[in-house]
User: Which sequence fits this backbone?
């Protein structure tokens, strides 16, 4: 087991929940830290941004897995990242005292793939929600989603119709797959490219607030 490099943004008071944001391909733990204040302006949540464990020759930044083809992570590197993230999440829950059912796993692009994977994996505990910007549910040897075992998990998925990296069909397919299994999906499209479109952020803020509601002791609750 190897701890992942990460950053943390504490809540303003006693946290209502935990938000873990996983960066995209070629970025690092700093990439989505600023998004925390956008998604959680009242600082109700403890936010953590881990760094992917993989570096690749000729590529900048950090990665979660090798990409032989979009939608299909390379199994060995995916399994390593999955194992490390699972241990990291378990340690976070133990250290913070915040349970999985008060946790949202989120990310952008490759980070959304890891959020789907850890949030839906058959060997992982159900979380409150999955926040997926420009991502997909992966097809990879050795990993299977368990949707029947997490009926309370909510999903927010947003994607750009002009995305040249991950086609919007991946997001539409994920929505259909999840809804067919009874999961609640808040789905948004825009004409954005491969980015977190500003048009999606206000909806994401509302979704996050309802997915991890304020506790009775929170300011303004």
Assistant:
């Amino acid at each position: 087991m190897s701890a992942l490099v990460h950053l943390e943004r504490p809540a303003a008071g006693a946290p209502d929940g935990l938000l873990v944001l996983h960066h995209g391909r070629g970025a690092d733990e700093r990439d989505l830290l600023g998004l925390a204040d956008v998604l959680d302006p009242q600082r109700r949540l403890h936010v953590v941004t881990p760094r992917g464990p993989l570096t690749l020759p000729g590529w900048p930044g950090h990665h979660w897995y090798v990409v032989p083809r979009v939608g299909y992570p390379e199994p060995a590197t995916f399994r390593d990242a999955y194992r490390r993230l699972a241990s990291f999440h378990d340690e976070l829950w133990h250290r913070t005292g915040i349970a999985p059912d008060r946790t949202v796993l989120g990310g952008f692009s490759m980070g959304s793939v890891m959020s789907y994977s850890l949030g839906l994996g058959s060997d992982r505990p159900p979380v409150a929600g999955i926040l997926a910007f420009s991502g997909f549910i992966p097809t990879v040897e050795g990993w299977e989603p368990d949707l029947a075992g997490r009926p309370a998990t909510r999903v927010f998925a947003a994607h750009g119709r002009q995305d040249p990296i991950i086609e919007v069909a991946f997001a539409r397919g994920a929505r259909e797959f999840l809804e067919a299994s009874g999961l609640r999906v808040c789905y948004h499209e825009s004409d954005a490219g491969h980015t977190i479109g500003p048009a999606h952020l206000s909806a994401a803020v509302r979704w996050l607030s309802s997915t991890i509601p304020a506790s009775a002791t929170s300011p303004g609750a």
Q: What stands out?
A: The chain is about 30% helix and 20% strand. The helical segments are 35-39, 75-96, 110-120, 168-180, 198-211.
